[in-house]
């Protein structure tokens, strides 16, 4: 490892639309974004990754091929960032693409080929951040609360950072320095799936389709009966639970119009986040949203209403970090922590036996 403080973080999340990358500088223990980039997934790769979300034939070979394709996309994102490095990049910290997350079985799987990425870039690669926490008895997720504390914590104030990707999670930043957090349930995953089925669109831009419908209260109540929502933390989830088959099973007998179902799915995401905040952070003073959901105005208005209009709901942009850069920056930070042999997890969040250094190194 070099003494450089420049790290690249790469994050491809549950929405599977592409990879967000940031070049970050941690000089003086500060956290500064130098440059950001985005590389979309080609439709065939996204389809292959979606297929890997469920069991199927020849999975080992198909996953390996997808990992090779991902490494090429990651390398392309890195190439957009390296010209802005004023010195040698210490490492690339890459999350990979989650294809299984079953911590109750002691497993989490992020498809990737970090060895190939090191070959393609000539830069050290740090990968596989979640499995050590799972090995220590934790959920392996969410990992971002520790970074949220470092970046967004404020002494004397209770803040909640909400990441709305395919799945939603919250980080509770208590005024005394404690940090809590867990996955609340679906973020965009069901909304994206529903609009994709009915309109052929990858997502509901600004929640416009949801805004054209009305919330079906009875259906919302039925969806909220999912046992996951009432489980105690620590907890985490993913497409292993929340997928279109899960939704279809709960829509049986419903005569709601498609736009009303979209409105109800948007309300489900907002209400389950608000419910979680009400339990974990009843004294919250401000809520800051990052991830793709931060661009959905209908969702943010629904969330503010579900919180009773009592706290401001704003993008992390107001705190100096663009909402679509937060997770990639978090993994750059985790890579930085790895090189210093400092813990990246919070046992109080994941349920692990204690703090652990997260990641595995693939030298250039």
Give the SSE map:
Elements: E1 6-11, E2 18-25, E3 32-40, H1 43-51, H2 59-81, E4 91-94, E5 97-102, E6 107-111, H3 114-121, E7 125-127, H4 131-135, H5 144-152, E8 159-164, E9 167-173, E10 179-186, H6 189-199, H7 208-211, H8 217-223, H9 244-251, H10 258-280, E11 286-290, H11 297-306, E12 313-315, H12 326-339, H13 347-350, E13 360-362
Parallel strand pairs: 1-4, 4-7, 8-11, 11-12
Antiparallel strand pairs: 1-2, 2-3, 5-6, 7-13, 8-9, 9-10
Helix pairs in contact: 2-3, 6-10, 8-10, 10-11
What is the CATH T-level topology of the largest domain?
A: Nucleotidyltransferase, domain 5
Can you tell me the CATH architecture of the largest domain? Answer: 2-Layer Sandwich
Number of domains: 2
Strands ordered across the widest β-sheet = 3-2-1-4-7-13
Spell out the CATH superfamily of the largest domain.
ATPase, nucleotide binding domain
Main pleated sheet: 6 strands, mixed
Tally of DSSP helical segments? 13
The percentage of residues in β strands lies in: 15-25%
Task: Give the overall form.
Answer: globular
The number of distinct β-strands equals: 13
Which percent bin holds the helix content? Answer: 25-40%
- Cα Rg: 19 Å
Amino-to-carboxy terminus distance: 10 Å
Helix/strand structural class: alpha/beta
Overall pLDDT: 96
CATH class of the largest domain: Alpha Beta
> Which regions contain 5 or more consecutive residues with pLDDT less than 50?
none
What assembly state would you assign to the polypeptide chains in this entry?
single chain
Order of secondary-structure elements: EEEHHEEEHEHHEEEHHHHHEHEHHE
């Amino acid at each position: 490892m070099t003494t450089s403080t420049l790290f690249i973080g790469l994050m491809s999340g549950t929405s599977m639309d592409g990879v967000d990358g940031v070049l970050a500088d941690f000089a003086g223990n500060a956290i500064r974004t130098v440059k950001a980039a985005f590389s979309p997934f080609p439709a065939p790769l996204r389809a292959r990754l979606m297929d890997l979300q469920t069991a199927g034939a020849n999975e080992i070979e198909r996953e390996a091929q997808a990992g090779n394709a991902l490494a090429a996309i990651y390398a392309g994102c890195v190439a957009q960032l390296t010209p802005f490095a004023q010195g040698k990049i210490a490492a690339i910290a890459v999350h990979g693409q989650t294809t299984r997350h079953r911590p109750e079985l002691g497993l989490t799987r992020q498809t990737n080929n970090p060895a190939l990425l090191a070959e393609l870039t000539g830069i050290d690669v740090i990968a596989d951040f979640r499995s050590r926490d799972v090995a220590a008895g934790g959920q392996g997720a969410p990992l971002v609360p520790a970074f949220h504390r470092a970046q967004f914590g404020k002494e004397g104030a209770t803040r909640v950072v909400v990441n709305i990707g395919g799945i939603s999670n919250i980080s509770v930043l208590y005024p005394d320095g404690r940090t809590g957090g867990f996955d609340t349930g679906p973020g965009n995953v069901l909304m994206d799936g529903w609009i994709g089925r009915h309109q052929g669109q990858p997502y509901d831009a600004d929640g416009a389709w949801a805004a054209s419908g009305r919330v079906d209260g009875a259906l919302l109540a039925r969806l909220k009966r999912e046992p996951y929502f009432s489980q105690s933390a620590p907890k985490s989830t993913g497409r292993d639970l929340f997928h279109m088959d899960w939704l279809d099973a709960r829509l049986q007998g419903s005569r709601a119009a498609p736009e009303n179902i979209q409105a109800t799915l948007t309300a489900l995401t907002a209400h389950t986040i608000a419910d979680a905040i009400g339990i974990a952070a009843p004294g919250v003073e401000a809520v800051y949203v990052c991830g793709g959901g931060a661009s959905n105005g209908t969702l943010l208005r629904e969330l503010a209403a579900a919180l009773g209009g009592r706290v401001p709901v704003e993008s992390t942009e107001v705190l100096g970090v663009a909402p679509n850069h937060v997770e990639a920056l978090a993994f750059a930070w985790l890579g930085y922590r790895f090189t210093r042999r400092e813990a990246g997890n919070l046992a109080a969040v994941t349920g692990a036996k204690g703090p652990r250094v997260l990641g595995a190194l693939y030298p250039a």
